[in-house]
Amino acid sequence: MQKFPPVKEQIEIIKRGTADIIPEEELVGKLENSVKSNKPLNIKLGCDPTRPDLHLGHSVVLRKLAQFQQLGHQAILIVGDFTAMIGDPSGRNATRPPLTFEESQRNAQSYWEQASKILDKEKTRIVNNSKWLSKMNFEDVIKLASKFTVARMLERDDFFKRYKNGIPISVHEFLYPLAQAMDSVAIESDVELGGTDQTFNLLVGRDIQREYGQEPQVILTMPLLIGTDGTEKMSKSYDNYIGINDSPQNIFGKTLSIPDELIYPYFELTTDLSLDELKEIKENLDNQSVNPRDLKRKLAKKLVAMYHSEKAAEEAEKEFDKIFIKKGVPDNIPEFKLSGAEKEINIIDLIMKVNFAPSRGEARRLILQGGVSIDGNKISNIKENIVIDKEKILKVGKRKFIKLMLE
Questions:
Q1: How far apart are CA 245 and CA 243, in angstroms?
Q2: pTM greater than 0.85 (yes/no)
Q3: With 0-12 CB in 10 A as exposed, 13-18 as middle and 19+ as buried, what is 215?
Q4: How far apart (Å, rounded) are the C-alpha atoms in residues 346 and 340?
Q5: How far apart are CA 369 and CA 349, in angstroms?
Q6: Using CA atoms, how far apart are residues 222 and 365, in angstroms rounded to an integer?
Q7: 390-403: buried (b, 16+ CB within 10 Å) or exposed (e) per residue?
Q8: Rounded to the nearest 5°, which phi and psi values hold at 243?
Q9: Nearest-angstrom CA–CA distance, 78 and 43
Q10: What angle (nearest 5°) sits at the alpha carbon of residue 253, between those of residues 252 and 258?
Q11: CA–CA gap between residue 283 and residue 91 (Å, rounded)
Q12: What is the pLDDT of residues 138-194, one digit of tens each?
């Protein structure tokens, strides 16, 4: 028999790190009814598999879903294999290019493999929204579209800005929030989770549920995690992300690079530290005798342990110290064999050959900024030729090493 924690205790856990609960009193009522009836709530999180990889920004809302799961509620992950073919326009100033059905299926598989590092595999209900959306005929779509006005759609900030600035909005983009709302109808969602940039879409779900005679879902939004640059939201596009599948060394090193002001938000939103432990972190940040670097180390080790292991966290810390404090070379670095004809090679050509820069311009910039060295000696001349007369170690940037040798 399912036994839920007291409602007050549940609310305390649910509100941790939350940006908004709309409306909170309805959530309390749903939780009270859940305890009385001994029936779990349906907690919905929709994900469009537009990319095959996840980062800590994605983990924020996944971790909130996991918290509901740990409280005894039903976690439902809606894989938007159908809506990915529309393309979510949230936060966009242009039409998002749609995916093919095959692309969305491949990405969905990769998404779940990574999300299962956070969610309980056995207790998570995973459903593709093509299950119901692909069955809707044109008459169904017309009926659905009749339940929402264009004026309401234009209340959405990104639509309003594009309309005002004469930037095209395709009619199919108006269908996206309605399709997402139908997901809530299909699973009879009690609570839907999302980032703050999803608020409009989630609220549409409440309206459409009412239209279909259902009790409207409660909306719970989570803050958007700022990336390692301290400026933009975490995104692969901005190259300011920490990937869930990153190596222990990359997770550790990237975490230590975050600005001090992000230390507490990262602890709060990306780890499972208790409220008492979070209070201690906040007190340490206010204590000038505590070096923020030490707190970043604790955060870095915690994240590596979460997505790899405690042993990996210890090894990542040792490796980091060896490279960045003792100025050493990692124990295990890849090898690259050059042909005899490449015994002498221009430094830019070499960087491009080992794929350590996306373009010759970027390789040139790295050299001029002092980010390139051979056997510990900085290379500052973009025209310099490197002679591979023995094994040599090329270092580009802070964490890219490769051992060079002739075939």
A1: 5
A2: no
A3: middle
A4: 14
A5: 17
A6: 37
A7: eebebbbeebbbbe
A8: -75, 140
A9: 10
A10: 100
A11: 35
A12: 999 999 999 999 999 998 888 889 989 999 888 888 999 999 999 999 999 999 999
CA distances from 245 to 103, 179, 248, 328, 338 (A): 20, 30, 9, 25, 30
For residue 81, what are its two tokens?
């294999």
Cα torsion angle, 145, 146, 149, 152, sign: negative
- Type of residue found at 235: S
User: Which two three-digit tokens encode residue 89?
Assistant: 């326009």
List beta partners, residue 387: 344
88 CB neighbour count, 10 Å cutoff: 21
296 with 262: CB under 8 angstroms?
no
**Of 378, 353, 375, which is closest to residue 366 (Cα–Cα)?**
378
Confidence band (pLDDT; 50, 70, 90) for 260?
Answer: very high
Beta-carbon contacts of residue 128 (< 8 Å; ≥ 6 apart) = 78, 79, 81, 82, 108
Are 66 and 75 contacting, i.e. CB atoms less than 8 angstroms apart? yes
**Non-local CB neighbours of 334 within 8 Å, separated by 6+ positions:** 401, 402, 403
